[in-house]
Specification:
Elements (H helix, E strand, L loop, with lengths): L2 E2 L7 E4 L2 E5 H13 L2 H7 L4 H14 L5 E4 L7 E4 L1 H31 L3 E2 L7
Antiparallel strand pairs: 1-6, 2-3, 4-5
Helix pairs in contact: 1-2, 2-3
Amino acid sequence: METPRSLGLHIRIVATDRLVMGWGRADLLMYIAQTGSIAAAGRRMQMSYKRAWALVEAMNITFRAPLVAAAKGGAGGGGAQLTALGKEVLAAYRAVEAAATESGAAPLATISAALRETVPPGGESR
């Protein structure tokens, strides 16, 4: 069976030699804001708690201040929330995505028109 194709953009913001923000990190921040939990955000992304925590820690040390504030779990429960800077960075990243999508619509349409309508299974790679 063949799979239909759709085009989109995945924006990565890099600083010289390292990833600063990408769609996965942005989605993780969004889910943390929605759920109040790093573990729950990771589950929504089908990501282990350890991986989600590692990404949060990487973001927290990359920026001048943490993007996520987390409270330890336990009987009273833990939790996590975006800091003011976290909300600001996430909004800025989403603005970059929106601008790229808007300005890239015509070139993406050209690329889309040049593609086969479907790709046979196993024909896609990342």
